[in-house]
Amino acid sequence: MQTHNQLAKWFTRLYARTINFSGVSREELYQAHGEKRTVFWIDAEDWSAAGQCTPFGTILLNENRLSEAPENVRDYVFLHEVGHTKPPALLSLASIVLRVPLVLLAGFGVPVLIGRWLGVALSFPTLGQFTTFTAVTLTTTLLITLPVIAIWWLDEGYAELFAVSKIGAMDYQRRHEEMLEHADRNLLSCAVRWLLYPNPKFVVWLAEKLDR
Ligand SMILES: [Zn+2]
Questions:
Q1: How far is the CA of 205 from the centre of ligand 1 (A)?
Q2: 200 is in which domain, residue-wise?
Q3: Separation of 200 CA from ligand 1 center, angstroms?
């Protein structure tokens, strides 16, 4: 266990450098609502996220986004990331078995598909050829991207539910809104948030249904 922890820490420090060149700025034992974890702070201006659960099950927090955020917002981000480290068995299995290959496929395969579609579109095809090829490209792209979105959404939804279970629905909604004030709200990050994260109102509704 100790070796595993040391290895995870080592990989986290390395991984942090892929997000921000100077890597981890400090490490601390973070504690909130009965959860205690070592967190790795990085000061990454160009990174739109406030925090991330790394592939090694450790937690990165972004000083640049959170240094001026109130403590309860920082706690919320921390608890969301802790939620990612405790997924139900089925979700972690789907993440490992499906998400990694599908993300790779989406990252490399979809640009190739679009490139091929452009090639055909620019080669003066007949209307029939163009329609068929467009339909095939669109269907294949959706078949690759929709499962990625679904798994991502479930993963984020679970982390949000975990945060709700710790801080309660009312507090969750308030902190969520405050957190967005500290988030980078460019068009791309808004689109990503809309697509990959469940709406907080839905999370609260679901939490009530599940009695969390
Ligand atoms: Zn998350």
A1: 19
A2: 89-210
A3: 13
